[in-house]
Amino acid sequence: MEDKHSDIDKILAEREKIDQLLKSKFSKEISIMFTDIKGSTSVYESRGDIDGRAMVHRHNEIVLPILKEYKGELLKTIGDATMTVFDKPAEALSAAVTIQQTLKEFNEKKPMNEQIHLRIGINYGTVIVDKGDVFGDVVNVASRVESLAHADEIYITEDMYQVTKSSDEFIFRYVDAAQVKGKKDALRVYRVLWHEEALSLGKTRAQVHKKAGLFVLEVFRYGQKLKVSGFERKGEERPVTGYKEIKFNESKIKKYTKGIIDLLNRANKRGKIGGDLLVKLKDYGKLLCDELVPPAIKEQLIKTSEQNLMISIDDELVYIPWELLYDGKNFFCQRFSMGRSVKTQQQVSAVSRALGRPLKMQLLADPGGDLKASYEEGVEIKNEMGLLEDWINVSFKSTDISADYVKARIRNFDIVHYAGHAEHDAQAPEKSGWMLSDAKLSAEDIINLKGAMPMPSLVFSNACRSGQTDEWKIEEDCENRIYGLANAFLLAGVQHYIGTFWEIPDQAGSYFATHFYKSILNGDAIGEAVRKARLELMNRYGEDTIVWASYMLYGDPSTEYVHPLMGERKEEPEKKTVKEELVSTDLRHREQVIHLDRDKKTSRSMIYAGLALLLLVIGASFLIHKGAPPWGRDGKIAADSSRREISASVNTEKQKRIDELVASLAEDYRKGNIRQKQTNQVQQASGPLTMVLMDVKSTGNITGDSSEKLKAILPLTLEKEQRIRFVERELLDKLLAELKLSASELADPLTALRIGKLLSARIIITGSIIGDRNSGTVILRCIDTETSEIKKVISAESPSGEIDRKVIDDIGGKIIEWVRKDFPSEGIEKKG
Questions:
Q1: Is the pLDDT of residue 690 over 80?
Q2: Residue 778: which region, alpha, beta or left (left: phi > 0; alpha: psi -120 to 50)?
Q3: CA–CA gap between residue 368 and residue 401 (Å, rounded)
Q4: Which carries the bigger pLDDT value, residue 274 or residue 220?
Q5: Does residue 170 register a pLDDT over 90?
Q6: How many CB atoms lie within 10 A of CB 132?
Q7: pLDDT over 90 for what percent of the chain?
Q8: Distance between CA 612 and CA 620 in Å, rounded?
Q9: Exposed end of the chain (fewer CB within 10 Å): N or C?
Q10: CATH class assigned to 681-822
Q11: Which segments of the chain belong to CATH 3.40.50.10610?
C-alpha cells in the first residue's frame, strides 16, 4: 500500500510539473476580436455568390489593413467573419473603432445595397496558444459577444472593460447581463461608443427618462422694467405663460448686492460671519426678493409643492445673487433645489450629450503642482467614486495636465471636475480660464470646442484664483466672474455647470464636492444634490459659516444623472477597491520622468510571484553558503551561480525552508509590511549603498540605442566606487518579466518604489534621454526609497546627440561625487 501511495505522489508531482510547463509555454493573455458582416447571408441569397464574394473582398480591403496597422494577428477568416488576436487590449479597441469609422465613411458614399455593416465582439483573458491558433473559453465568449452586437456596434466583455476602462480615449456604456450558450452565468456586456451620434441626445436608441416637475421663475429686463413670470412646469413647456411687469430699480439692486458682498467680506478666513451679520444677510436677501419678485409670484412660491426651482434670466441679470434671495423663512438655495438658465444672443451649441451607465468622469486636480489641497480633493473624490465603479468610471489626472490634452480629451467624458487655479480677465473675458500645467485653457478655447462631438454634460469648476488667504476677500463683480467661464462651457454645449461665487476654505470645498457626487450616484437630481451638499456644509460648519452659499448651478436642476432606466441599483457586498494614495509633489511633478497613473492596477498575485522569485534566489544563496550574504565579490547579486547551485544541490529540506521563508515574507506583504527597514546612521556609514537603475526613456532625435547603452555602462562606472552596490540588471529584468510590469507601469512612482524596496535598494535611479537636432541631454533622478524624496538630479549633455561612453562616465562621476558627499563612509576605502 505504501508503494502505491508513493507512486501516486510521484505521478501527481509530475502532473503538477507538466501543468506548470503547459501554463508557462502555451498560455498567454490576449485580446481576441471577432467581426462579422451583418446581413451577408441575404446578399448571397438575393444577389448571388458573385456579388456576395465581391462584398467580402471589399470588406477585406478595408478591414485587414487596419487589423495589421494596430498589430493584430489575423488567425483565420470564416466566410465573411474574421478572428484576430492582439497583445495589447487598447490596440484591439483602437482597431475596432477605426474599422467602424472607416466603414461609416465608406457607406456614406455608397447606395444601400453596396454598404457594409459590421458587428464586432472583443474579449480578454488567458488562452492556450498552439501552432498559430488559440483555444479556450475566452475564444468562445468573444464569439458569443460578437453575435449579441447589432450592426455598426462594438461589444466587449466585462474582462475587456476592466483592463481598458481607465483609458481616456474610449467611452463605454453598459448594455446588459446576457445569457449565452455554454455559460451558466449571464455575461455583463458593454458597448464602445465610436462616433458622435452615439453620444448625442435625440440620436440614440436610449429611452428618455421623465424628469420631475419644477417651478420656473423667469425675469427679463426691458429698459427700466422687468417682466417677471412664475409657474409650475410638469413635463413639456407651456405654450403660453403670463407675466407681471414691475419697475427695475437698478441702483437699489446694486446697493443690496454690494451690501451682501460687504457682509461676506467681513467673514473670517474660515468664512464665519457671526449671528448678527447673518441676520443682516437675511435682511438684504429679503430686500432683493421684494424688489425682484412681485407679491403674487411670491405667494405662488410659498404655496408650491415643487422642490426644484429654475431661475431663468437674461445675461444682464447674472450679477444678482439669486441663490440668496430670502422669502422670510429660508434663502432660496436652502429651500429649493435650484438652477440657473440664461437667455443670450450668443450662438449656443445645439448638441447635447446622451448619458448612460457607467458614467465616465475625469478629475483634473492641481495642474501646476502647487495646490496641495486641490490634489487631496481630487484623491478624496476618486476614492469615494471608486466605491461605485459599476456606475461611474473615474480617471484621475494630476500635475502633468496640458491645455492641448484637455482640449483633445474633454469630450470623451460625461463629467469633468476641475480643482486648481483659475484666472479672470475683466478687460477681456474671453481670456479668462483654467490655469493648466503649460498654458491657460481660456474661455475662447472652450467655446471653440463646440461641434458635432458633444461636450461633457456636467462641468464642476472648484477653482480659485490665488489660493485661500488670511483675508476673506470677495470682488464686487464675483457673479460676472463665474458667469464668464460658465458662459463659455454652456455655449459649447455643457448642460450643467457648477462653480463658486468666491474662494472657499479647502476642506469645505472638498467636503461639498464629495457629498454632491454621493447624492448624484444615489439617484438624486443634480439640483437636489447641490442642495443636500449645502445642508451638509451647514450641519458641519454652521449656518453662520457662509461657505454653503458659495456654490451656484447653471442648468436644469431636475436632471438625474443616475435613474431607473439605467438599471436597478442592488445592495452588493462591499468590494475591496484600490484607493488612490497621496504622493508628494516631488514625485508627481510634471518635469519628472515618473508620473502618477493609478488607474493601472498591478495584480497582487503577480507581486507575490515576483517576491517569491526574488527570495528563492537570495534565500537559497543564504542557505547554500551557510549564511554568506547574497553579494558576489564584485558587489552584484550572484543570481546565476545561485541558480546553478540550487539546481545541483538543493535537497528537500532546504527547499522546505525556502518555501517557509517565501510564505512568511509573502504574508508580511499581504499585511502591508513590505517597507524597507530604516537604516540608522551607523549602518549608513558602514554598509554599502545599494542602487537599482529603473527605466530610462528616450524621446526626440537620439542616435543609436542610447537607453540600453546607458543601462549597460552606468553600473560599471558606478561600481568603481566601493561604497556603491548595484542590483544586477538581469535579475531586475527577470523580476519585472515575472511581475508582467511594462515600462509604462514602472512610470508609476509607487510601483517603482515597491520594486526598489523588494530589491533592498536604498536608491532607485530613473530618468530620460531627450534629443533634438543638434544635441542630446540625459536627466537622471536619484530617489530615496526610505523617504520617497528625490535626493539628486543629475544631467549631462552631448553636443553630437549621441550618448557615448564619455557622457555616461561624466554622469557616473557626478553620482559618485554626490554619494561621497551625502553618504560619507567610515572605514571603507574609496576608489576612483
A1: yes
A2: beta
A3: 8
A4: 220
A5: yes
A6: 8
A7: 31
A8: 11
A9: N
A10: alpha beta
A11: 681-822
> 415-455: per-residue pLDDT in tens?
999 998 888 776 777 778 899 988 899 888 998 888 878 99
Please, what CATH class does the domain formed by 359-566 belong to? alpha beta
Q: Are 215 and 241 in contact (CB under 8 A)?
A: no
Please check the confidence at residue 270 and state whether its pLDDT lies above 60. Answer: no
pLDDT band at 51 (very low <50, low <70, confident <90, very high): confident
- Retrieve residue 397's grid coordinates: 489626472
**C-alpha separations of 683 from 124, 762, 823 in Å:** 48, 12, 11
Which of 559, 453, 555, 448 has the alpha carbon at shortest distance from 495?
555
pLDDT of amino acid 605: 44
Q: Which CATH superfamily is domain 26-199 in?
A: Nucleotide cyclase, GGDEF domain (3.30.70.1230)
Three-state SS across 43-74? HHHHHCHHHHHHHHHHHHHHHHHHHHHCCCEE
Secondary structure (H, E, C), 429-475:
HHHCEEECCCCEEEHHHHHCCCCCCCCCCEEEECCECCCCCCCCCCC
Q: Is 130 helix (H, G, I), strand (E, B) or coil?
A: strand
Start-end ranges of CATH 3.30.70.1230 in the chain? 26-199
Position of cell 491657460? 440
What is the C-alpha separation between 496 and 489, in angstroms, rounded? 9
Label the pairing between strands 776-784 and 415-419.
Answer: unpaired
What H or E segment, with its residue span, contains residue 217? strand 214-222
pLDDT-based confidence at 723, cuts 50/70/90? confident
What single letter denotes the amino acid at residue 491?
L
Contact, 503 vs 468, CB < 8 A?
A: yes
Grid look-up 465568449 returns 141
Are 526 and 551 a contacting pair, CB within 8 Å? Answer: no
133, pLDDT greater than 90 = no
CB atoms < 10 A from the CB of 46, how many?
Answer: 10
pLDDT over 70 at 376, yes or no: yes
Q: Is residue 747's pLDDT more than 70?
A: no
Number of H helices, E strands in the chain: 26, 27
pLDDT at 634: 39
User: What are the residues whose beta carbons fall under 8 Å from the beta carbon of 643, sequence distance 6 or more?
Assistant: 617
Diameter over CA atoms, the chain: 108
- Asked if 757 and 665 count as a contact pair (C-beta separation under 8 A), the reply is no
Average pLDDT taken over every residue of the chain: 77
> Residue 639 is placed in which grid cell?
543570481
Query: Which residue type does 54 have?
Result: A
Burial of 217 from C-beta contacts in 10 A (0-12 / 13-18 / 19+)? buried
Q: Of the candidates 403, 334, 400, which has an alpha carbon nearest to the alpha carbon of residue 367? A: 400
Cβ burial, residue 319 (10 Å; 0-12/13-18/19+):
middle
The 10s digit of each residue's pLDDT in 450-484 is: 887 899 999 999 875 322 222 333 455 544 444 56
Which positions ≥6 away from 631 have C-beta within 8 Å? 637, 638, 688, 725
Mean pLDDT value of segment 196-219: 68
DSSP string over 734-776: HHHHHHT--HHHHTSHHHHHHHHHHTT-SEEEEEEEEE-SS-E
Band of pLDDT at residue 785, cut at 50, 70 and 90: confident
Cα angle 452, 458, 461 (rounded to 5 degrees) comes to: 120
Please list the residue range(s) of the chain that carry CATH number 3.40.50.1460: 359-566
d(C-alpha 77, C-alpha 84), whole Å: 9
Q: Which residue has the cell 471636475?
A: 417
Rounded to whole angstroms, how far apart are CA atoms 18 and 12? 10
Rg of the chain taking only CA atoms, in angstroms? 32
